[in-house]
Write a structure and sequence with these properties.
Elements (H helix, E strand, L loop, with lengths): L3 E3 L12 H9 L7 H7 L2 H20 L15 H14 L4 E5 L7 H16 L3 E5 L3 H5 L5 E5 L2 E6 L1 H6 L1 H8 L5
Parallel strand pairs: 1-2, 2-3
Antiparallel strand pairs: 4-5
């Protein structure tokens, strides 16, 4: 209710729900509170919510490259697509702040590009995104500001270029002799 959604480092899926239903779980937060009676009577307000939700669900599935798997179970998805589904479900809740823990871990090149494009559009649309990420190439293309921690201590903060050039970062993460 605070407008914050998050994902976890370990991919978490609900195996008994279809891929499209995962996104629907996130979307439920955005629906008006029509109530069970309106749902049972299929009132115009209820039908409008349903129609709007289906359009938004299709858009989110397309954005994250999941439309071909919409009617399947997440356990049938490749591991990278399961991770994208987790992010798509969080995005469906329409948060103002999105917290992502290692979202690019395990993604192939196509999946990484899908995630990068989706996060770029969300950020441009006004969503605040906080990433915990080790993939500096992925991060550099998204982040305006990077803070690097080593053992829970801030060792550098600044633009991606500044952080990559920082000697403490190079020692801690890139190796002392990294170029």
């Amino acid at each position: 209710h605070a407008g914050i959604a998050r994902t976890f480092q370990r991919t978490a899926i609900m195996p008994h729900l279809l891929v499209r239903d995962h996104v629907e779980v996130g979307l439920r937060r955005t629906y008006s509170d029509a109530g069970w009676l309106q749902a049972m009577l299929r009132t115009p307000a209820y039908r409008a919510d349903l129609h709007k939700g289906r359009r938004r669900r299709a858009e989110i599935l397309r954005t994250f490259g999941l439309e071909a798997w919409a009617a399947g179970y997440p356990s049938d998805l490749p591991a990278g697509r399961q991770r994208l589904l987790q992010v798509a479900t969080a995005v469906a809740a329409a948060p103002t702040v999105l917290l992502l823990d290692e979202p690019s871990a395990g993604l192939d090149v196509e999946e990484t590009a899908l995630l990068h494009d989706a996060l770029t559009r969300l950020s441009a649309g006004g969503m605040t995104i906080l990433l915990i990420e080790h993939n500096m190439r992925f991060l550099a293309g998204l982040a305006g500001r990077v803070t690097v921690l080593d053992g829970g201590v801030v060792v550098a903060a600044g633009t991606p270029a500044e952080v990559v050039a920082d000697e403490a970062v190079r020692r801690a993460y890139l190796g002392a002799g990294a170029q």
